[in-house]
Design goal:
The protein is of the alpha+beta class and 480 residues long. The protein contains eleven helices and 21 strands. The chain has two domains: 332 residues, Aminopeptidase; 89 residues, Sandwich (Immunoglobulin-like).
């Protein structure tokens, strides 16, 4: 009886009376990526390899061999995932006709995409891509067997697995799963999709391009199963001529949106502890080479490339053969599917995180000849708070931060408003938020701001530099 009385008086704590804390964003992401399966990834690659060749100039009508059969198979896979989630995916086939140095006659080119529309912000889009086409030593040889297991069956398999896993969840923003053609002939599929999303008026937050993500040992015997390389451009390419003078004065050489996606992925991999560390490579792509994400960058959309820590040049762009006991060719037996699963998990986590967070804001920094720095930005729909971040100009990653959710952080004209709902803040077009950083000299630091949702998902950081906004650069109108 005494125990009962004490319980009633609240003098003894009981778990039954304590509400469990909701899972953190990182806990939710770990649960989301858990179903990623190395076995399913292997099955996806095996399915792609079974078409013999997926060369862009191969048959588009043969039901068993060539690029046409592979595209139909991929579309069927997307349709099966959509049926399993009650029709949550919209499957489309953007198509165009291309001709060029490696496409000697006008040829129909097709991408296959699946669209998982966001529940609240369907116009905010994150895209995962891999190229479905393959090649051998001669880029014009459309008849020889070109298994394309790692290049880029691995990236295509990751796209399909991401669709399978993430279609079981709902997200505020839209996710696009895309298999691209024509990469080996001139990045045609990447340009086709970049042009397609432009016609849709989408707000592209990021393109995560996966190309060669499924082996761990290089052609020199060096092996690395614990790192993935993320390639990102420094100054943004699109708009570079207009931005050059301002960047020379205010900085931005290391702060394009793509570079901040790379930092975002590095932090995410560290926090989720999936056995994979990001090695940030600060150039657009491998030395003198390119991938489909480049066409997104050309259009002004943030994009990065995932690739293995060490490439094996004997197993890519090679005729399948054995010479002096050495095997050449991109065959499935050279792949490491446990490693591919880790890279796919990082992709899936990033897609889920970006689609759950509000878009990054567009910050502006002031503080010339001042002992303080002021950072301002327009509040973002769906954000209940923002995080102001800064780092020394020679630092790799953001080192300092301040969460901005104070009562008087946002204002419109002379009236101050509290950023309580995120949605309310966007009702006034001239509404702005600001943070003043005392005794922080603007000369010595780079500044940026991210957006945070009500349940704690944080966007990539947008740097307060010329060209730092996560949207295509548009030159200001010339005053007459």
């Amino acid at each position: 009886m005494r125990l009962v009385r004490l319980l009633l008086l609240g003098l003894i704590a009981t778990p039954l009376l304590t509400a469990a804390a909701p899972p953190s964003p990182d806990e939710r992401l770990r649960a989301i990526v858990a179903p990623v399966s190395a076995e399913r990834l292997r099955a996806n690659v095996a399915g792609l390899v079974s078409f013999g060749t997926r060369h862009t100039l191969s048959s588009q009508s043969d039901p068993r061999r060539g690029i046409g059969a592979a595209l139909n198979w991929a579309e069927a896979r997307f349709k099966a995932e959509s049926a399993a989630c009650g029709g949550c995916l919209v499957i489309e086939r953007p198509t165009t006709t291309v001709e060029g140095e490696r496409v000697p006659t006008p040829t129909r080119l097709t991408d296959v995409i699946a669209i998982q529309r966001g529940t609240e912000r369907p116009n905010d889009v994150v895209i995962i891509t891999g190229h479905i086409d393959s090649r051998v030593t001669d880029p014009m040889n459309a008849t020889a067997d070109a298994p394309g297991a790692n290049d880029d069956g691995s990236g295509s398999a990751a796209v399909l697995e991401a669709a399978r896993v993430l279609s079981n969840h709902k997200f505020r923003g839209t996710i696009v799963y895309a298999l691209l053609s024509g990469e080996e002939q001139g990045l045609y599929g990447g340009k086709l999709l970049a042009d397609y999303v432009k016609t849709q008026g989408c707000n592209i937050i990021a393109n995560l391009n996966n190309d060669i993500i499924g082996n761990v040992c290089g052609s020199d015997g060096i092996c690395d199963s614990t790192h993935v390389r993320i390639f990102s451009e420094g100054p943004r390419w699109q708009g570079r001529e207009d931005l050059a003078q301002a960047q020379r004065s205010q900085g931005g050489e290391n702060d394009s949106p793509s570079r901040n996606i790379s930092r975002f992925l590095d932090s995410l991999a560290d926090r989720l502890a999936i056995g994979l560390d990001v090695r940030q490579i600060w150039r657009n792509d491998r030395f003198g080479r390119g991938g489909d994400h480049t066409e997104f960058l050309n259009a002004g959309y943030p994009a990065v490339r995932f690739s293995v820590a060490v490439e094996n040049y004997d197993w890519q762009h090679q005729d399948v053969r054995v010479e002096k006991g050495k095997a050449y060719g991109d065959t499935i037996d050279h792949m490491d599917f446990a490693y591919l699963a880790k890279v796919t998990k990082l992709n899936v986590a990033a897609l889920a995180a970006i689609a759950s967070a509000p878009p990054p804001p567009e910050p502006v920094v002031e503080g010339a000849v001042s002992t303080d720095t002021k950072v301002t930005w327009k509040p973002v729909r769906g954000a209940v708070s923002h995080v102001v971040r800064w780092r020394r100009t020679d630092a790799v990653s953001w080192t300092d931060q301040k969460s901005v959710r104070e009562k008087w952080a946002c204002f419109s004209n002379s009236a101050l408003h509290a950023p309580t709902t995120g949605l309310m803040m966007t009702e006034s077009f001239d509404l702005k938020c600001q943070a003043v950083l005392p005794h922080i000299r603007v000369d010595d630091w780079v500044f940026g701001v991210s957006s945070v949702s009500a349940d704690g998902f944080e966007s990539p950081v947008a740097s307060a530099v010329p060209g730092g906004a996560f949207r295509p650069y548009v030159a200001p109108p010339v005053e007459k």
